[in-house]
Each structure stands twice: as C-alpha cells, then as structure tokens.
Amino acid sequence: MPFARRRGSLVVFSIVFLGPTPAWAVLGGSVASVASDQQRLRGELRSTAADGFSIHEITAEDGVVVREYISPGGQVFGLSWRGPVRPNLAPLLGEYFPAFQKASRSAARRRGPLVVRTDQLVVEMGGHMRAFHGRAYLPDLLPATVSAAVVR
C-alpha cells in the first residue's frame, strides 16, 4: 500500500507542478507566452514582421482576434483585440491590471469608449454587443522607431 500512496502523490505532483499552464502574453512580458495563448484560445497563429517590431495574431474559434506586438528585444509592448466578446483584461494586462482598475473607476462613466491613460499604461476600448475592440500599450516599451498608432 505505501507504494500506491507514493505513486498517487507523484501523479498529483506532476499534474499540479509540471502540467501546462496557459498564459496570456502579458504586457511587458516575454514573447514566449504566444504559443500558450494559441493553445488556450484554440486558434490559428499568424506572425508578421514589421519595421522595428513583430505582430503575432491569434484568431480563435469564437471569432475573437488578439494581436500581440513584440519588440525586437522580445517584450510585449502592446495588445489589441476585436471580436464578439470582451476579453478578460486581468491576464492580458498582468501587473498593470490593478492600475487600470483604479484609473477606470475614477474616470467619469459615460456612454462611449473607455480611455485610461496613466504614466505607464494606455488602454482604449469600446464597441457594442458582438463587436468589441480595444488596445493597450506601454508607452515606455514602444521601440524607438514605432508610434503608438501601430497598436490597432
């Protein structure tokens, strides 16, 4: 019986600690998370190179398209999305999510797009049922030759 107990513990350990952990490409994070995003969304990945950055676009089965903008140094400096549903911004914004929440609560609520600008983060989002869109970027991580306008 002790062997069976150890074997069961090993299985639980393996599942908990060694199993795949899906993650979003987090603003300021590494390009390494793009593959896990593709798995999590069960989508198709298309990558393109642009002048001074690259774009990894994932199209999910439900129609949501997430674009991840990567600097030459391999950091995610921007994200954009469009689709029939709003994405969960917590995993997308990572450590910047609390600042986004705080700033969005203090913004006067009105109809129309939500725009949040802090010293470190810009988030713009809007749309309506079945047609949501938005973008988020870190001004300090934009490559020198890249304008914020490319994050769309």
Structure description:
This protein has helices at 2-18, 34-41, 89-93, 97-106; strands spanning 44-50, 53-59, 65-70, 76-83, 114-117, 122-128, 131-137. The protein has a single domain, classed as Pathogenesis-related Protein p14a, CATH 3.40.33. It is 26% helix and 30% strand.
List the helices and strands and how they pair.
Layout (H helix, E strand, L loop, with lengths): L1 H17 L15 H8 L2 E7 L2 E7 L5 E6 L5 E8 L5 H5 L3 H10 L7 E4 L4 E7 L2 E7 L15
Antiparallel strand pairs: 1-2, 2-3, 3-4, 4-7, 5-6, 6-7
Give the total of beta strands.
7
Strand content: 25-35%
Strand adjacency order, main sheet: 1-2-3-4-7-6-5
Unreliable segments (pLDDT under 50, ≥5 consecutive)?
Answer: 3-23
Distance between the termini: 59 Å
Structural domains: how many? 1
Order of helices and strands: HHEEEEHHEEE
Number of helices, where a helix is a run of at least 4 consecutive DSSP H or I residues: 4
Mean pLDDT level? 81
Question: In the CATH hierarchy, what is the architecture at level 2?
Answer: 3-Layer(aba) Sandwich
Radius of gyration: 18 Å
What coarse outline follows from CA principal-axis ratios?
globular
Remind me, CATH topology? Pathogenesis-related Protein p14a
- Under CATH at level 1, the class stands as Alpha Beta
Based on secondary structure, the structural category is alpha+beta
